[in-house]
Amino acid sequence: MNPGMMKKLQKMQRDMVNAQKELEASTFYGTAGGKMVQVEFTGDKKMQVIKIDPDALESKEDIEMIEDTILAAVNDCINKIEQETERVMSQFTGGGMPGLF
Predict the structure, then answer these.
(1) Helical packing angle, 62-93 and 3-25, nearest 10°
(2) What is the pTM of this model?
(3) What DSSP string describes the chain?
(4) How far apart, in whole angstroms, are the C-alpha atoms of residue 101 and residue 91?
(5) Residue 9: CA atoms inside 13 Å, Cβ hemisphere, count?
(6) How far apart are the C-alpha atoms of 73 and 35, rounded to whole Å?
(7) 40 to 9, 24, 26, 57, 77: CA distances (angstroms)
(8) CA Rg, the chain, in Å?
């Protein structure tokens, strides 16, 4: 491999690592139930905050509904992280190599 190509590959690798670090440091938000439940995750899929609207719980029967809403909000946020990761990293993979990141 010629030295010019090697330098290009090394730069692309550094750029990929930097892009991944930026994604992991980013904050993503998910909501469900008309913002009844709101979650906040970092780009490495670690939950930082969960907020539940106090008006959502009027009785003990509402707990199952809130649990379902929490799951929906978490899944919403994780989907946003995955979409952004795919968007950012596709510049390096050309849209190929699914599952690489």
Answers:
(1) 160
(2) 0.69
(3) --HHHHHHHHHHHHHHHHHHHHHHH-EEEEEETTTTEEEEEETTS-EEEEEE-GGG-SSTTHHHHHHHHHHHHHHHHHHHHHHHHHHHHHHHHTT-STT--
(4) 12
(5) 6
(6) 9
(7) 35, 13, 10, 21, 7
(8) 19
Residue 19 is encoded by which pair of tokens?
A: 């892009």
Amino acid in the structure at residue 17 = V
On whether the CB atoms of residues 23 and 43 are closer than 8 A, the answer is: yes
- Of the CA atoms within 13 Å of residue 85, those in its CB half-sphere come to 22
Backbone angles phi, psi at 40, to 5 degrees: -135, 130
Reported as a single tens digit per residue, the pLDDT across 26-73 is 999 999 999 899 999 999 999 999 999 888 888 877 888 888 999 999
Q: How far is Cα 62 from Cα 33, in angstroms, rounded to an integer? A: 13
